[in-house]
Write a structure and sequence with these properties.
Elements lengths: L5 H7 L47 H11 L8 E5 L2 E3 L5 E2 L2 E2 L13 E2 L22 E5 L4 E5 L3 E3 L2 E4 L2 E5 L30 H6 L6 E5 L8 E2 L22 E4 L11 H12 L2 E6 L4 E4 L25 E3 L6 E2 L7
Parallel strand pairs: 1-15, 2-6, 4-9, 11-14
Antiparallel strand pairs: 3-5, 6-7, 7-10, 8-9, 12-17, 13-14, 13-16
Length: about 325
């Protein structure tokens, strides 16, 4: 994610390629304490909306044709398995942090953050941001019914430095303007991240009941425009008017041959794309983002591989009706 400054926006263009580089699932030790799987917000939230019969956007054909010409990042639909989602409760210590240059006001929050013992940042083995990646810190605290999502966190001993923090009220159905028009979050589009990640527990159970986060390179995201439910974009995007804008929701065609996919896990993800779609959330190279299996019961090994959805091309999607195109100003109003 990023805010108006071009240099920071370019850094955000690396978002969610993750420290794993090629998006492959690293080996991780099992843990007996899984994090939450789904249902972060009330059932009426936009992330859980069935769009299988939703009308197409007037620009759908043009957007899909453009995207099919340029392709997904890395030229294929690949899965990144690096983002962690941690579980916090009333006993989890809350820690204040020192905002960095990646923290923007009034977009970002300054609340103390729950830091569960034994947790980790995206792409890291612990809470130190050593790899210069996005280093998202995500913790769902059901005792407080809050979802804490921070971009570019770095905790070293008593020092806690952090970029943009978005604190989401999990009891609330947010309006189309989300946390605020023209406001960012820990993701460039202004979305929460956790509700859009699919995880190994969901896939092993054969059902994903929410939309899925997807990302594209900055050069193939429409410049200086977004659509709801996004509330933000970055000035690093440079795609033409036929490129998808931040907030675009693509739906896998109902006639896509699911039987052609290599395993049932891939078909489970594809069925979610048909029913709930995929939402353009951030910039980067690896198209789909799954949750790491470090804190889930099921594991990705032997379940779903990074390239098991590679046969799905942009031409296999439609863009559902997106409504008003909103010019990017980055003048956040909370």
């Amino acid at each position: 994610m990023a805010k108006p400054l071009v240099a920071l926006s370019l850094l955000a263009g690396l978002a969610c390629a993750g420290s794993s580089g090629d998006g492959s699932s690293p080996d991780r030790a099992p843990t007996p304490t899984p994090g939450p799987t789904a249902g972060y917000f009330p059932a009426e939230a936009v992330w859980y909306r069935d769009v299988s019969t939703a009308s197409l956007d007037p620009q759908s054909a043009a957007v899909i044709a453009y995207l099919d010409r340029v392709g997904w990042g890395l030229g294929r639909m690949q899965v990144d398995f690096s983002i962690e989602v941690l579980t916090a409760d009333a006993s989890t210590p809350l820690r204040a942090f020192t905002p960095t240059e990646d923290h923007f006001r009034p977009d970002c929050d300054l609340d103390p953050v729950p830091v569960p013992p034994g947790g980790a940042l995206e792409g890291e083995q612990g809470y130190e941001c050593r790899g210069d990646g996005d280093c998202h810190l995500i913790a769902a605290d059901r005792s407080r019914m809050k979802l804490f999502e921070m971009w570019r966190a770095d905790i070293r001993g008593d020092s806690f430095r952090g970029g943009c923090l978005a604190v989401w009220d999990m009891t609330r159905v947010y309006p189309p303007t989300g946390r605020g028009e023209q406001c960012t979050s820990a993701d460039a589009a202004g979305f929460p991240i956790a509700p859009l990640l699919f995880d190994a527990d969901e896939v092993a159970a054969g059902r994903i009941d929410h939309a899925i986060r997807f990302i594209l390179p900055n050069a193939t995201i429409r410049a200086r425009e977004y659509v709801h439910p996004a509330t933000h974009g970055t000035r690093a995007t440079s795609g033409p008017p036929d490129a998808p804008p931040y907030g675009a929701r693509l739906r896998l065609r109902a006639d896509y041959p699911l039987a052609s996919l290599p395993n049932e896990a891939a078909r489970t993800v594809a069925r979610a794309m048909q029913r709930y779609g995929i939402l353009l959330s951030d910039a980067g190279r690896v198209a789909l983002t799954a949750r790491s299996d470090r804190f889930t019961r099921a594991k990705w090994a032997g379940l779903l591989g990074a390239l098991d959805l590679a046969a799905i091309r942009p031409r296999d999607f439609d863009m559902i009706a997106a409504g008003e195109r909103i010019p990017l100003t980055n003048d956040c109003v909370r």
